[in-house]
Design goal:
This protein is of the alpha+beta class and 226 residues long. The chain has one domain: 4-Layer Sandwich (CNF1/YfiH-like putative cysteine hydrolases). It contains four helices and 15 strands. A hairpin with a 2-residue loop joins β12 and β13. Bound molecules: zinc ion (ZN).
């Protein structure tokens, strides 16, 4: 269940914890800023991993501190925090409870078209032991608010488009759900938030004139206290 406390939404499932920030936290990609937010929630974290988000389908397995290029991160190590930044694109967490394994993905239309979802699942399956996979999606732009050009029909099936007030709109969340299901994941929880409809709570790149502010989503496997 999704819970809100002090401007941060949290979702927990067993040892898996997912958090995302609201406008109370005007996060730009500054290390100091996101470190302090994460430290407040998980003071015992061992490392924070981010990537240079490039709308790709590249996933990185965490391997110590360093520079990661791509749009997704995977770890099996507890208390290692994965973090991404979005404003309209969707943060997606794919995880296994037993044994615990977690991935966090930055998914806009380009990354989704390029296959970031199946890539993440394949990397998880090919490199780790895992149980049944589940997924969680955070706030992103909804099918009523995401107006796109006709050229987008070159990338996605016509079933994902609708005409709203003469605009062509793309239902990115449905594309995500379909791709997750095609990858064998049926247990999918959506936050239900749209960055534009719920702009009073979340940043939107489109609705706010290309704002630099981002929603910080971070996820980890919480270490059991013995
Ligand atoms: Zn909306």
């Amino acid at each position: 269940m999704l819970k809100s406390n002090n401007g941060i939404y949290s979702f927990k499932d067993g040892p898996i914890e997912i958090h995302f920030t609201t406008r109370q936290y005007p996060v730009i990609k500054s290390e100091k800023q996101y470190e302090s937010i994460i430290k407040n929630i998980l003071p015992e974290y061992t490392a924070i991993y981010t990537t240079k988000q490039i709308h790709s389908s590249i996933i990185n397995i965490t391997r110590g501190k360093g520079f990661y290029m791509g749009d997704g991160l995977v770890t099996k190590c507890s208390n290692e925090v994965l973090a991404i930044f979005t404003a309209d694109c969707y943060p997606i967490v794919i995880y296994s409870l037993n044994p615990p394994l977690i991935s966090l993905v930055h998914a806009g239309w380009k990354g989704i078209y390029r296959g970031i979802i199946p890539n993440t699942v394949n990397i998880m399956k090919n490199n780790f032991k895992l149980g049944e996979l589940k997924a969680f999606t955070g706030p992103g732009i909804c099918k009523k608010c995401y107006s796109v050009g006709e050229n987008m029909k070159n990338y996605f099936s016509s079933v994902y488009f609708s005409k709203i007030d003469d605009s062509l709109c793309l239902d990115l969340k449905s594309v995500i759900s379909t791709q997750l299901k095609e990858a064998g994941i049926t247990d999918i929880i959506h936050s239900g938030f749209c960055t534009v409809c719920n702009n009073d709570q979340f940043y939107s790149y489109r609705a706010e004139n290309k704002t630099n502010n981002r929603i910080l989503t971070f996820a980890y496997i919480k270490k059991k206290v013995q």
